[in-house]
Amino acid sequence: MRLTGGAVAFGLLLPGAAAWGSLGHITVAYLASNFVKEETATYFQELLRNDTEHYLAGVATWADSIRYTKWGQFTKNFHFIDAKDDPPTYCGVDFDRDCKEDGCVVSSIQNYTTQLLDSKLFPWRRNQAAKFVIHFVGDIHQPLHTENVARGGNGIEVKWERAELNLHHVWDSSIAEKMLGGIRRKPYEAAHTWAANLTSEIKTGKYMAESKFWAAGMDLDDPVATSLGWANESNAYVCSTVLPEGPVAIVGQQLAGEYFEKAAPVIEIQVARAGYRLAAWLDLIADRIRATSNTIGVGEL
Ligand SMILES: *[C@@H]1O[C@H](CO)[C@@H](O)[C@H](O)[C@H]1NC(C)=O
Ligand SMILES: *[C@@H]1O[C@H](CO)[C@@H](O)[C@H](O)[C@H]1NC(C)=O
Ligand SMILES: *[C@@H]1O[C@H](CO)[C@@H](O)[C@H](O)[C@H]1NC(C)=O
Ligand SMILES: *[C@@H]1O[C@H](CO)[C@@H](O)[C@H](O)[C@H]1NC(C)=O
């Protein structure tokens, strides 16, 4: 699902064909705001001109809202990288093979991270770059945003309870919404609660041990290698969990039962990783900016 610009203001969910659902993106953003350093929060609250706890969550779906506008068309390929692999036999993302000429999610994380670090750019450009980075770090953790088969599963019809949906939509939205017992048109509240739960699971719960490694190897000077690692890890789930018997076998299957039971833990850990990594990435960016400038401000607005 995606939010239209107007719908964001009313917090309404509208059906649509694109991108990790709003619930996933907003949860990733709330989660990140629970993990960033205080100085990082201050920096991005100023850049995004929002000093509430919603400063990241409120802009997490902006990139989807402009994607189908005339102005935003150039960003349409920035939300994914189409791995030309062969699930379930072989998975793996290759940057040179898979990133389209006009960009992909990996090159876009690089592009907009670089812009965020460029103090010569006007603050409105860095504001926009922040919104793209927040969104794309979410997208890259959705396995079907790293897969070429049937346009990331958009062309695979499946059953979901009594509905017919495409597989991409099931992974963007349906699985997460079912896990939370439905979100009753209130994605921000549902995401806030989910993020609080995942924050505890990371700090003191089931993800406490492994989350220590989630930010390992992150290199602000090599955003392509860093985000390619995330994409490759995400894409591995296409072979293990998304298409365990291949793209033909899944057509027409009911996915809200046994399949859901196996998919839900993958969605959960991917949202947890995305939020945790987004926080670490924003920390690196804010640290670098502080180290290279005399003030912690964002410059004249
Ligand atoms: C901050 O963002 C939230 C969520 O988008 C919004 O409801 C609120 O009005 C914003 N606050 C300010 C001061 O802009
Ligand atoms: C990508 O994933 C594949 C299998 O899923 C693995 O064999 C390969 O080593 C990984 N490559 C990188 C660069 O992480
Ligand atoms: C980088 O971002 C700018 C500003 O949004 C955009 O015009 C440009 O096409 C992007 N470049 C690539 C390679 O994605
Ligand atoms: C998170 O939610 C799950 C599912 O409702 C629950 O089993 C778990 O105890 C919660 N974790 C925390 C730390 O609250």
Secondary structure: elements and pairs:
Layout: H1 5-10, H2 22-35, H3 38-47, H4 62-67, H5 95-98, H6 105-116, H7 123-139, H8 150-153, E1 157-160, E2 163-166, H9 167-179, H10 187-203, H11 208-211, H12 223-242, H13 258-292
Antiparallel strand pairs: 1-2
Bound molecules: 2-acetamido-2-deoxy-beta-D-glucopyranose (4 copies).
The site of one 2-acetamido-2-deoxy-beta-D-glucopyranose has 5 residues, from helix 12.
| Basic shape | globular
| Helix-strand pattern | HHHHHHHHEEHHHHH
Spell out which ligands are present. 2-acetamido-2-deoxy-beta-D-glucopyranose
SSE class: mainly alpha
Oligomeric state, counting identical vs distinct chains? single chain
CATH topology: P1 Nuclease
Mean pLDDT: 91
Rg (C-alpha, Å)? 18 Å
Total domain count: 1
Q: Could you give the distance between the termini?
A: 33 Å
- The portion of residues forming beta strands comes to under 5%
Question: Which architecture does the CATH hierarchy give at level 2?
Answer: Orthogonal Bundle
Say how many strands there are: 2
Strand order of the largest sheet: 1-2
Percent helix: 40-55%
